[in-house]
Amino acid sequence: MEFSVKSGSPEKQRTACIVVGVYEPRRLSGVAEQLDKVSEGFISNLLRRGDLEGKSGQMLLLHNVPNVLSERVLLVGCGKERELDERQYKQIIEKTIQTLNDTGSMEAVCFLSELNVKGRDTYWKVRQAIEAAQSSIYAFNHLKTRKDEPRRPLRKLVFNVPSRRELPLGEKAVAHGMAVAKGMNLCRDVANMPPNICTPTYLAEQCSELAERYDSLSFSAVTEQEMEELGMNAYLAVGRGSANESVLSLLHYNGGGDQAPIVLVGKGLTFDSGGLSIKPAANMDEMKYDMGGAASVLGVMQAIAELQLPINVIGALAGCENMPDGRSYRPGDILTTMSGQTVEVLNTDAEGRLVLCDTLTYVERFEPEAVIDIATLTGACVVALGNHASGLMSTHNPLASELLTAAEQSGDRIWRLPLWEEYQTALESPFADMNHLGGREAGAITAGCFLSRFTKKYNWAHLDIAGTAWQSGAKKGATGRPVPLLTQFMINRTAATEQV
Ligand code: BES
Ligand code: MN
Ligand code: ZN
User: Range of 137's domain?
Assistant: First the structure.
């Protein structure tokens, strides 16, 4: 879909549909009032007759409104004016997009970006509207032989801003919103791909294709043979039972000269059966999403390349498959990691941290400014935070607060969990330098503690996205998170460097 901004009066829009808000109970928004005036009370008459109460998400489509140039007017209920918050705003936008798709308007001018959303400006409203709109029309149809698409889908959506002065801000919001939405779509497409197609090699191909599309991106890969030479034995152990080769894919984005890079490390388990510590059969299909971290790294790399941000970023997609087999690693095995530290394996289903620990050591060579890993790491994180927030853990407070700020701005929420020294004792092993897991308690944190032992050489943060990377049930599918969060983090980073 195409998006743009303009500033004009509602009655003068020569378009298929204009979208205008009505508050509850039957109260016209500023724009609706303007239409009401030129149409000599046409809209207030309708409301008086009880056609629309203004409850959040209610829709009323009007044709031939007097003295209005647009073919249709879509009145959208926005709830009580004082209660209009971020969540409601996004829901209203989504509902509006669905309705426009159903009514056959192929283009529309939307005045909902002029609504009053507590504490949010035009930039936020336009950007969130674009992300919500793109998100709501997303469908994964690639593998269906019959695709049911709307006959006359919405192609072009123009957001109106209150004054010409706000146009530059609106245009920036369009650029950012489109880049984020495009990154989310790529993330979702790759994550939704089934595990018989989406293997570690497939992830590498996606990276290489992306690098071909953007001059600022280049691709390289670390193969099993090179991992062997580097001593990445924990990573290799996890992939040993799989017929699909492990591949660590690297995407280098160069936009910031010789600045130290920010490194994003994504867990890329293209399927996690649990290995010999095999998972129960119910919902095991969802473990194709265990590469959601890697998919989000791919999405972020595309977004920053699209925005041509003046920074350096390296994306590392740790591709691997965890399967039971005669060659599989076992509970009881002791592995020597690339860092030299030895690790006793207690459960082969705690594979993510093993793949990540060697990748975290590998990326030391880039002398990074900061490293953020993104992983569908623990069921415990889902128990703790549910599906609304990703877990944040970090040993560097400034980096943690940068991420928290970016989450607040982008609406892609995170919640910090502590990595206190006290939790580290859970990892003591009688036979090796450490266990790779703690007990049942604080499972998300002890996983973070394990990773922290491989990140001493740089500033590091860890995002556990086990609860946020995909949805189960009727709306099963990848969410595209945390692409908005990380893209926002990168945008903020460039604002910081521009000041110096
Ligand atoms: N990929 C899973 C974590 C996961 C489980 C994410 C369910 C989303 C939903 C991870 O590899 C795993 O299996 N973790 C184990 C660790 C345990 C054995 C210490 C878990 O969380 O149960
Ligand atoms: Mn697992
Ligand atoms: Zn896993």
Answer: 2-162
Q: Could you give the CA distance from residue 383 to residue 444 in angstroms, rounded to a whole number?
A: 9
Report the C-alpha gap between 272 and 348 in whole angstroms. Answer: 10
478 within a domain of the structure (yes/no): yes
Which of 269, 245, 253 has the alpha carbon at shortest distance from 191? 269
Look at residue 440 in the predicted model and tell me its pLDDT.
93
> Residue 9 and residue 393: Cα distance in Å, rounded?
48
308 in a structural domain: yes
- Say whether 288 is catalytic: no
User: For residue 500, what pLDDT is reported?
Assistant: 43
Which ligand is closest to the CA of 331, given by its number? Answer: 1
pLDDT in tens, 457-480: 999 999 999 999 999 999 999 999
CA of 279, closest atom in ligand 1: 13
Ligand index nearest the alpha carbon of residue 471: 1
Please indicate, yes or no, whether residues 281 and 138 belong to a single structural domain of this protein.
no
pLDDT at position 498? 60
> How remote is the CA of residue 191 from the centroid of ligand 3, in Å?
14
pLDDT band at 94 (very low <50, low <70, confident <90, very high): very high
168 lies in a domain? no
At residue 77's C-alpha, the angle toward residues 389 and 90, to 5°, is 20
**Tell me, what's the pLDDT at 64?**
94
Q: How far is CA 118 from CA 77, 91, 121, 130, 488, in A?
A: 17, 15, 9, 19, 20
